Structures are given as structure tokens and as C-alpha cells.
Amino acid sequence: MPHASRLKCADCNKVIKYVNARRISNRLLQLYLSARTQEIIDSTCYIFLMKFKKSSLTFVHYFNIDKHLIFDNNASLDDDAYYNITGLRKNQFNDLLAQLQSMRNSKLRSVRVALAVFLAKFRLGLSNRVLATIFDLKGNRTVSKIINQLRQVLTIDFVPHRIGLNHKLCIVMDDTYIPIQNQDEYILAVFGPFLADGHNNNASIIQHIMKNDDQGIASWLHDDDVIIVDHGFRDAVNSMEELGLCVEIPSFLKGKKQFSTQEANRTRTITKNLLHNCIVNGKTKEWKYFNYLQNSSLRFLPDDMDIVCALHNAFRQAVMRDPTNGIELAKIMLEQIQKENELDK
């Protein structure tokens, strides 16, 4: 065992004491850290990595069976393995692969492997060096080249067919990535990124988008179209109404202790629709690539978000599995929106 002063964690690289050291024995964790020559890890980092292992059991299982993940053979991995590694089911993966018409196989990789590398990068947030080892590629530069190629191909062959302002519907806006979507969780457009400072809040961002007609959104909207927003957009309500839009926003207490029955009913009807935004924003954050963005990747962020949102649109599963039940619930809420509270009488 090296001297305590020379012990360094393979993950965070800090000097650690012998009593806090944990030896890396699992092959996946060694690859995840790109640390097969460094077998010591801090106890705090060890706990974090064990959680990663526990959350990726299918991934660990298939990696332990074969030295490398084999995607060229469609039968080598089952449906669950495809989902855990790429975020798509096997049939969804094959469907997406068929749409990549402008990419060809090369000596280094097939189109199928290239797509798997790209999706694994976004799904798991692994380093290029680890992906190179897992997919039996020459090195991290090869992985970087593959990711850049797939980004370009997806932006050309896939994204334009899955994101666009070509539907007439009730629009719901939220603040995570400013997606615009209807009640089947379809994302119409993505705006940004915007610098997170005191000058950029929900209201100022949407005012900027409307004023500059980004992506033709203001031209696409018509008079009396319904816009549903949360309290973060309150300062932009007047600006949107000046464009002829009908803006629905939850009520404010404004010093009162509670809402009237009508205000409470109306607010609940609005927030019921806003719920879908929270769900969709949560799904985009399931791609771990966005958890720790490198500065070198920031210039690709708009394209990367478009790709992830296009993947969501193409392969999403409706939150409400029974649309008929949703329609009946909406009818009941609208019928009772003006109903008085019997307990107040």
C-alpha cells in the first residue's frame, strides 16, 4: 500500500487517508473512472459510484458478460439493455437508425454503433474514454468524432421532422428550457440557452422571444390563441395580451388569506394543464449528459437540446394512458368551475 500522503482518489484526485480509502474491484467502476491503473478511491466517491452501479444493473450485467457492448448484432442485447444504455427501446432504436439516411458505415464503426455511442453518451453521461473502452473504439478522439458526426446527421435527418410550429393547439409555457407544447407532451420549439442572471427571468425571456419573433413564433400565433403560463410569467402577461393572445395564469392572493371558490376552481383548472410541463421538463433531464456540461460542449447545447426534444417527440409515451378519462375529467372541471362551495353557506 503506498504511503498515506501519496494516496489519491481516482475520481476527485484529492489526497486521502488510508482509513478512507476503498479499492476499486468492479470492472465497470474502473472503466467509469478511466482508472484501471489507479485502484484507490475516496470513501465518499465510492458510495456515489455504488449508487451508479445499483441504478444501472442491466448495463452492468451486459458489460460483465461481454468485454465490449456489441450493437452490430441486433440480437446480442435485449430490449431492456437497449433502454438502459441508450434510453430507447430496441424497436425505437431501429426506427431512429432507419432515419439516418446521410450517414454511412466506415472502417472505424458502423452507423448502428455510432448511434449507440451517441445515445449512451447522452443517456449515461460517461466520458469519451470510457465509451471508447466499452464500445471497443480506438480512443476518446474517435468517440468525439462520432458524437460530432451524429449530432450533424440528427440535426439534418431527424430533428426538422420532429420539432416545428405546424400544429394549431393550446400552448403551455414553462421556464426550464422554455419548451412550447400541447397536452400530448409534444414539444413544438426550444429557445435558448439564456444566461442565468438578474436580467433574464421568465417574463423577460418570453418578451424577447415575442418581440424578435424567434423561429416565427409570434407570426405563427393567432388572435385569441390561448397561452397558459405560471406565476413566473406575470410581468409578460400585458405584452402577450397586446399581441391579441388570451393569457391564462393562476390567480394571486394579493394579501388575502385564501381564494374565493371561483378563483380556486379557475386556478386549479390552469395548474392541471401546467402539470404536463413539469413532467416533460423532467423527462428531458433524464439525459445525464446535461448534468455536467463541459465548457467545450456549450456551443453545441442548442443542437443537443433540439435532438433530445426531438427524441422525446418521436418516442414519447403519453402521461395520460386513457385519453377518454382525461376528457371526462376536463368536462367535470369545466362544469363545476362556477359552482359555489356548499360548506361556505
- What gyration radius follows from the Cα positions, in whole Å? 25 Å
Mind describing the biggest β-sheet?
5 strands, mixed
Structural class: alpha/beta
Average pLDDT rating? 77
Query: What topology, given as strand order, has the largest sheet?
Result: 5-4-3-6-7
The separation of the N and C termini measures 79 Å
Spans with pLDDT under 50 lasting ≥5 residues? 177-182
Count of helix runs: 14
Return the domain count: 3
Helix content: 40-55%
The strand count comes to: 7
The percentage of residues in β strands lies in 5-15%
* Element-level helix/strand string: EHEHHHHHHHEEEHHEHEHHH
Specify the overall morphology: globular
Structural notes for this entry:
With about 350 residues, this protein is α/β, with parallel strands linked by helices. The protein has 14 helices and seven strands. Strands 5-4-3-6-7 form a five-stranded mixed sheet. A two-stranded antiparallel sheet has the order 1-2. A hairpin with a 5-residue loop joins strand 3 (about 170-175) and strand 4 (about 180). It is globular and about 70 Å long. About 25% of the residues are buried. Keywords: Metal-binding.
